[in-house]
């Protein structure tokens, strides 16, 4: 049986392993730093799914007010352990995201999925998500910036 709960700092090692499965490599200290930033953010939630006492999935969802899009909940991250994919864990996590959104009065949930993940696209489409837009993500690295929780309390 799968249970879903809020992520705690004790889950950092397991979550790090899940993120690694999607090629998001970072050390445990960085995962802990990011967890604390998300946990402090008022309109964000980090949830984990457990099976048999083992963390098998991570979900990060947040509220996005915007001018150019409808205000909605955004699934920033979903990762299900490889050994559990296809068993309903991802569907349960997305249902949790949708419930979180509905509790806050949002009429929709959106997410972005990398073009190299066709299996994820098929999963999302199977549970009712439809392609709404295509875009490019552009990023500029800022020179000599050491952003931390101390210099920027919102991160």
Explain how this protein is built:
With 155 residues, this protein is an alpha+beta fold. It has one domain: Aminopeptidase (3-Layer(aba) Sandwich), CATH 3.40.630. Helices cover 30% and strands 23% of the residues. It contains four helices and five strands. The protein has helices spanning 12-21, 28-40, 89-103, 118-126; strands at residues 2-6, 44-51, 54-64, 72-80, 109-111. The protein has a five-stranded mixed beta sheet, with helices on both faces. Strand 2 and strand 3 form a beta hairpin. Helix 1 (12-21) crosses helix 2 (28-40). It starts with a strand and ends in a 29-residue tail after the last helix.
What oligomeric state do these chains adopt?
single chain
Percentage of residues in helical conformation: 25-40%
Q: Would you tell me the overall average pLDDT? A: 93
N- to C-terminal distance: 34 Å
What is the rounded Rg?
Answer: 16 Å
Hey, roughly how much beta strand do the residues contain? 15-25%
What CATH calls the topology is Aminopeptidase
What does the main sheet amount to?
A: 5 strands, mixed
Tell me the name of the CATH class: Alpha Beta
Structural domains: how many: 1
Count of helical segments?
Answer: 4
Side by side, the strands of the main sheet go: 1-2-3-4-5
- The SSE order reads EHHEEEHEH
**Helix-and-strand structural type:** alpha+beta
């Amino acid at each position: 049986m799968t249970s879903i709960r809020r992520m705690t700092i004790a889950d950092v090692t397991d979550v790090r392993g899940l993120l690694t499965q999607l090629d998001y490599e970072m050390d445990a200290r960085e995962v802990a730093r990011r967890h604390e930033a998300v946990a402090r953010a008022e309109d964000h939630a980090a949830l984990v799914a457990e099976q048999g006492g083992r963390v098998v999935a991570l979900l990060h969802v947040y509220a996005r007010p915007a001018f150019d899009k409808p205000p909605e909940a955004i699934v920033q991250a979903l990762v299900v352990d490889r050994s559990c994919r296809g068993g309903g864990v991802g569907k349960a996590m997305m249902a949790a995201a949708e419930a979180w959104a509905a509790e806050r009065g949002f009429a929709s949930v959106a997410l972005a999925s990398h073009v190299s993940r066709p299996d994820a696209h098929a999963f999302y489409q199977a549970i009712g998500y439809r392609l709404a837009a295509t875009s490019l993500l552009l990023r500029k690295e800022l020179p000599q910036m050491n952003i931390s929780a101390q210099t920027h309390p919102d991160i």
